[in-house]
Design brief:
Oligomer: single chain
Number of strands: 11
Helix content: 25-40%
Largest sheet: 8 strands, antiparallel
Radius of gyration: 20 Å
């Protein structure tokens, strides 16, 4: 008998229905992983879809979003909210992260990330890192992050769907979207110190990364996150992602990489 590939290899959650014409080809310049990773790391608010605990209907709400070191989405929600009550019954959820600008909203890329949300226990091994990374993205959330009814939740990503416009769609497995941090414990342990050092002593370099390498407007750009694949920059409500040309997994290689990028921004060498 011919094996049932549908059963052996079930489609990813959120996968396209397979109705694309056979002769349709994505543009040569379409790099779905890069576009998806950029949206994941730079989108500060998104639509959270949970399953209504009373009926099973999809329930959509707006939440602030940050990412863990590996890119897993983080949210901060109150127990009083409907979406939190839904997640307590069924953690399955999705997050829509979209880029906006002038003109037709559908002309801009958007990413749907699917997975299961789980609360981060206070005083757990992950709490300090997740709290720090989220509040770096959303400093005003510190006003209520310590309230007893608020908690951080982290998504265990299973898949994602990217729509980058006409003929620019792609399904991504979790491993294609997230950043491998299995060999970067030393870097992650030093992240908070490295960020503080960058913002205190190398604010000019952060500005140059944003304006010269990423084409952003002038401003007080600050570093809010570091991981093996890149640097997260932010000014007010604007966020940028500076991808490293090579992975870095420790403080020494990070210093070398940041120096190289600063020289590049200054036109040195």
């Amino acid at each position: 008998m011919t094996p049932d590939n549908t059963t052996a290899n079930p489609p990813l959650p959120g996968a396209m229905p397979g109705r694309t014409p056979e002769n349709a080809q994505a543009p040569a310049d379409f790099a779905p992983r890069e576009v998806a990773k950029a949206l994941l790391r730079t989108t500060r608010a998104g639509t959270l879809a949970t399953l209504d605990r009373n009926s099973g209907h999809p329930f959509a709400s707006l939440v602030n979003v940050a990412t863990d070191a590996d890119g897993a989405p983080l949210i901060l929600v109150s127990k009083l909210a409907t979406h939190t009550a839904n997640l307590e019954c069924d953690g399955r959820a999705s997050l829509l992260l979209a880029e906006f600008g002038k003109g037709d909203a559908l002309a801009y890329p958007r990413l749907t990330v699917l997975g299961s949300m789980a609360p981060v226990a206070r005083e757990s091994a992950d709490d300090a890192r997740i709290r720090r990374r989220f509040l770096a993205r959303h400093p005003k959330s510190e006003l209520y992050a310590g309230f007893g009814d608020f908690a951080f939740w982290r998504m265990a990503v299973v898949s994602a769907h990217l729509n980058g416009g006409f003929a620019r769609a792609a399904d991504l497995a979790a491993a294609e979207l997230l950043t491998d941090v299995s060999d970067a414990r030393v870097l992650l342990d030093a992240e908070a110190e490295a960020i503080a050092h960058m913002n205190a002593d190398h604010a000019e370099a952060c500005r140059l990364y944003a304006t010269k390498l990423l084409g952003a407007p002038e401003g007080k750009w600050a570093c809010v996150g570091i991981d093996p694949e890149g640097l997260d920059l932010q000014q007010g409500q604007s966020a940028l992602r500076l991808f490293f040309p090579q992975r870095v997994t420790g403080p020494g290689p990070l210093r070398v990489m940041l120096k190289q990028l600063a020289d590049q921004a200054r036109g040195v060498g």
